[in-house]
Amino acid sequence: MKRLLILLASAVVISTAVLGLAALRPTPESDPTLQVSNRAVDADPEETVRTSRSSSRSPAASPEPVADDRESQPLTRADRDGSSSTDTAPANEPDFEQMLQQPLQQVAAAYAEQNRFPTFSQPIESPAELLRYKPHQPQTVSLPFPTPNGGTYQANVTLDQYRYFKGDRQQLTLDLSTSGGTFISDVQATVTTVEGDELYRLPLHVGPGTRIDHSQTVDLSDAWQDWPMELQWTVRARVGEQRLSVVAPFRYETPVAVLEGVGASRVEGEFLTIPLAIETDFPGYYFVQANLYSKDGSPLIHLQTEGPLTPNHPPLTLRASGAIFRHLNDAGPYVLRDVQVERLGGDALPDRFGQARRSEYAVTGFPLNDYADSTWTDTLAQQRLDFLESLGGTDSPN
């Protein structure tokens, strides 16, 4: 029983530590995985499939009680003297304390590595990490429908990103196919509200067949007339005698702010400071993130900044850690890309987004010796690290 209580308590501590570690790591806007559910299709009615965001957790398996069928034995002298070995683990049983310390040591090591540098200036150490920090990613809705002849109609609708601003061009890609020889015909693509009201019909010129691959650039700026921000592409097709449709959601909005450019970068102590020239008619509290690349295109640092954006406040700036430049032995020049500007909501107002005028901005580099030695410390992060290391049975080097 004591061991079970220790295991349960330690599991709670480990889970809390891991969740806290994940929460502290800066995460850009990420488009959630679209999970699609289809309904049984009838011969004539049109079936519309809508995307939904859902998550599930598997409950932990409860240990099953084990019956003890050992024969009762007479008490030994040790038993009578109170020196029973009931609470003593056998020699070949794992050391529970060591088993619990190992995952805690791993959590502490990962947390220490993450907090080597400021949260607003984090090295990009893998392609997967870069993908997390890129704000615009293709969005695909993929759905199979069964056909009456035992085949399958596979509908894939892809948009090159989820959020668009007025004037942006969309790339709409259709990949429709059937197995079993059923023909696909009369393909239509429309922009509708989430309630299904049609706002725009795209002229499509695709012939019938068992496989349709079509990609088309769409400019909605002329058709847009005060549409709601939440929209969807609805792609309908006749598959044999059935009329089937699938929807791909997206946002189409007017930017609340525009990054017009970046000022001259400069070294300030241990940081490379990059001033941001953001124009807006909607003052408020803003959050900006971007990625800094080397001249040859290698990703280096993910940058973040936040603060009030009003005429009475200084411009927002990004700060890149010189210690990372030294670690990478890269003195520049650099390129700033993947900019995302967000006005944080409040008082029942939703978050709104701005855009960058250009896809990239040149940033001047400086000799690595110009940067002061890093003195960055995060008192709260160090306290958390000390706590994790104490749980794991290790001592902090600090």
TrEMBL record:
Biased composition regions of type Basic and acidic residues, renumbered to the chain: 67-82
Record's signal peptide: 1-22
Name listed for the protein in its UniProt record: Uncharacterized protein
Ranges of biased composition (kind: Low complexity): 51-65
Sorted UniProt keywords: Signal
Superkingdom of this protein's organism: Bacteria
Region (Disordered) residue spans: 26-93
